[in-house]
User: Fold this.
Amino acid sequence: MATEEIKTMHVVMFPWLAMGHLLPFLRLSKLLARKGHRISFVSTPRNISRLPKLPPDLTTMITFVPFTLPPVSGLPLDAESSMDVPYNTQQRLKAAFDLLQIPVTEFLRRSSPEWVVYDYASHWLPKIAAEIGVSKAYFSIFNAASMCFFGPPEELIADSRTSPEDFTVVPTWVPFESDIAFRIHEITKYVEKTEEDETGVSDAVRFGYSIGESDAVLVRSCPEFEPEWFGLLLDLYGKPVVPTGFLPLVMEEEVFVENNDEDTTWIGIKKWLDEQRVNSVVYVALGTEARVTRKELGEMALGLEKSALPFFWVLRNESKLPDGYMERVKGRGLVHFGWVPQVKILSHDSVGGFVTHCGWSSVIEGLGLGRVPILFPVVNDQGLNARLLQGKGLGVEIPRDERDGSFSCDSVADSIRSAMADESDEPVRAKVKEMKSLFGNKDTDMRHVDELVRYLSDKAR
Assistant:
């Protein structure tokens, strides 16, 4: 289709209240806006304020639409994101999110967009969009393999996997050999079932209706990376599955900053990185949502110390390190509390390895810049991502006890040294270099965006 045949669209974006969801939705919004389409980005005031500022050329194309999050018993008044509440109480945040149904419905009626692109949590939205006459697409910020593991809509709505053990086996609907499944500690350690009834709607049911009642499913990945899983998704969903590409962040689109210390933060970090040898530094970052225990933090700290390699470790402000640790690693290890510009750090030539929680955004950033993943999954889909990467020879996983997730400082040190330098893992490093040409390929990503735009234009109501 020629460019002039693609009609200009108004697209409403409505992500779940988590930075790992908001940022990919914003990245997709910017790419669509640069193709000439008008975007309304709907979220809450505090989350919108946390997002990167729009570049000047997009300020007239993307409009942020803030709706105040209604109060819910047990939810702090200033909590608007998953990072604002403990992981195992996020169902209360979903209860507040569901109360946005009325203002969002009114906005859709008033603005009459061609498409609404929504997240898994708003299971109520596709039915409303259909009644109004708006085309609706579920945007999965998860990869195709993870979505296949979760299953077809009818399986999700039935919510038939009732025990943690049900999630530790490859589902029967996967027709080829696979080891993509959770380990028992990845299911039980961070999820308390007592919270599931907070909204009366489980995450599985939310996924089921969001997928099943969509006109199309958009997936943040591409068939070049996981062809077998995209093929299976088409069979499981029985509807169009459209890859968006990886939607990697670029330098000017870094993760949120709640104050103006970005420049000074990066200046200090860069000075330290500049002093290190090329590919010698291990970057360690375990995400914004999950909290490791003090014992786990201690083992990770001692493991980094024992590795004898330079490291840059990002921690939450409230994290407590072992006594005397900072003095012992001074000069070789740098520990930073709070926000850092992750893409800039991963882009630095001194960084060779990346101890990651395996969140899909972080995986994309690390592989797109050629950094060897050292896998330490914590919550959500991260265990599935770790299996996917290992199955493709793209990472070294830190060994942990299958039942309780415990690990030793020695296993941390051994895994880091192996990933960074051991001959036995040279094939992993070679594979990562090969994948850089896919995950960091802007031309491939833009081709997928162009094909997505054509699809949306063709199918808009």
